[in-house]
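just leaving the lab so this will be short. what follows is a protein written twice so to speak, once as letters and once as structure tokens for the fold. can you read through it and tell me how you think this chain folds. anything you notice is useful, everything is just below:
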Amino acid sequence: QVELVESGGGSVQAGGSLRLSCAVSGSIYGMNCMAWFRQAPGKEREGVAAIHRLDSTTYLAASVKGRFFISRDNAKKMLYLQMNSLKPEDSAMYYCAAKDGDCRPRWDVGMDYWGKGALVTISS
């Protein structure tokens, strides 16, 4: 049974940084696409970033390019999201997700596994 557990959420002022971590328990074999999503109150969930488990190709939403960076450590079964230059509009619940199969052609759909989320709050 696969379980994803996020950590590292919190509250920071605009311009600050946070690093989210996602620990994966269970087998990651075949889980080739791992991603971060977020959902703000009253808004739809959106994909933030994804990374291919084997070749480390990354995908980023336009709203976070140049500020957020996704990485993974397969040996430790960890996924990370480094968030810099945070803005109030980045405030949301952030979810770790993964799917069996490739990130291509769409990295932001079809996730098979989800964490319970980590809350990120950015004050102005």
Q: What stands out?
A: The chain has a mean pLDDT of 95. The first strand starts at residue 3 and ends at 7. The chain is about 0% helix and 50% strand. Residues 32 and 54 are 7 Å apart (CA to CA).
